[in-house]
């Protein structure tokens, strides 16, 4: 298992413990604190490293997000699109009420955890 950590982002990559062998590997990213234009470059760099790290799906846990700006939404969209080209998926897990509100305001729905374009 690979672990990368900074003050706002934690990344763990590897097969989830306790799951059957046929369950593919995935990378889980925990975002916490405030994410805006000032943290966009670091988040984008983390996402790029995650995409290069392995060939599994990516889960972003938003439960610890206190503030999320539009720049963060753009990084999530770009990551979703890049993963889609690679036949991989981006799943959003446990968005805080603040994160969920920003997703809604940006016209995005979080259907079954998948970051989808809004109607």
Tell me about this structure:
Helices cover 33% and strands 37% of the residues. With 119 residues, the chain is an alpha/beta fold. The chain has one domain: Transcription Regulator spoIIAA (2-Layer Sandwich), CATH 3.30.750. α1 (40-53) links the parallel β3 and β4 (57-68). α1 packs parallel to α2. The longest helix is centred in the middle third of the chain and has 16 residues, at 70-85. The protein starts with a strand and ends with a strand.
What are the key terms here?
single chain, 119 residues, alpha/beta, 5-stranded mixed β-sheet, two-stranded antiparallel ribbon, 7 strands, 33% helix
Strand percentage lies at 35-45%
Radius of gyration, rounded?
Answer: 13 Å
Total E-strand runs? 7
Q: From the 3D coordinates, which CATH architecture would you assign?
A: 2-Layer Sandwich
Summarize the amount of helix as a percent range.
25-40%
State the CATH superfamily name: STAS domain
Shape: globular
CATH domain class name: Alpha Beta
- Order of strands across the biggest sheet? 1-2-3-4-5
Number of domains: 1
The H-and-E topology, N to C, reads as EEEHEHEHEE
The CATH topology turns out to be Transcription Regulator spoIIAA
């Amino acid at each position: 298992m690979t672990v990368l950590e900074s003050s706002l982002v934690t990344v763990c990559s590897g097969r989830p413990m306790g799951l059957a062998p046929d369950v593919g590997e995935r990378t889980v990213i925990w975002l916490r604190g405030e994410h805006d234009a000032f943290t966009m470059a670091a988040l984008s760099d983390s996402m790029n490293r995650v995409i290069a790290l392995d060939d599994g799906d990516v889960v972003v846990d938003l439960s610890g997000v206190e503030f999320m700006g539009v720049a963060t939404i753009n990084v999530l969209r770009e990551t979703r699109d890049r993963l889609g080209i690679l036949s991989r998926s981006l799943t959003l897990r446990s968005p805080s009420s603040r994160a969920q509100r920003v997703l809604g305001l940006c016209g995005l729905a979080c259907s079954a955890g998948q970051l989808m374009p809004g109607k």
